[in-house]
Amino acid sequence: MAVERTLAIIKPDAVKRGLTGDILSRIHAAKFQIVAIKSVQLSRTEAEGFYAVHRERPFFGELVEFMSSGKSVPMVLEAEGAIAKWRETMGATDPAKAASGTIRKELGTSIQFNCTHGSDAPQTAAFEISYFFAGSELS
Ligand code: ATP
Ligand code: MG
Fold first, then answer.
1. Does any ligand 1 atom lie closer than 6 A to the CB of residue 114?
2. Of the options 3.10.20.340, 3.40.30.10, 3.30.70.141, 3.30.70.120, the CATH number for the domain spanning 3-42+72-137
3. Which residues are tagged catalytic?
4. How close is the Cα of 118 to the center of ligand 2, in Å?
5. How far does residue 54's CA lie from ligand 1's centre (Å)?
6. Consecutive sets of 10 residues in the chain, 139 residues long: mean pLDDT of each?
7. Distance between first and last Cα of the chain
8. pTM score, two decimals?
């Protein structure tokens, strides 16, 4: 399997609840390399741009409000098959449906407040990484 990079975000619900350290420990335990990491508060416009694929969905307004509501922690994770591996580590979008042991099952509180984001394909990973990180931050 090829070494890949994916974009992960610790979302504002998890940062506000003091779960950043817990989630970073799970990332280390799952043997991802953290290539780059920062703490940011997205503007509404930045959140809209990041989730533009969802702009027609009924929850888009709430999602933008939520993602711009406080600090979040975007990071670039590297591992063999990192994109699928990180989505497995997070679990299903809805914490109620996520497998036991996953971040969303153990820490998420609703389909919206599900603690973490992960890219879903190589093209989206490339777009999402470049949304937060310059090339000089990724060597
Ligand atoms: P993410 O893209 O954040 O990793 P995902 O790929 O598992 O999550 P998407 O379908 O891309 O799920 O949805 C993006 C985000 O929108 C979800 O993580 C969640 O925060 C929010 N969301 C999804 N469905 C709903 C819903 N029905 N109601 C409210 N918020 C939702
Ligand atoms: Mg998604």
1. yes
2. 3.30.70.141
3. 117
4. 7
5. 9
6. 97 98 98 98 98 97 98 98 98 98 98 98 98 96
7. 21
8. 0.97
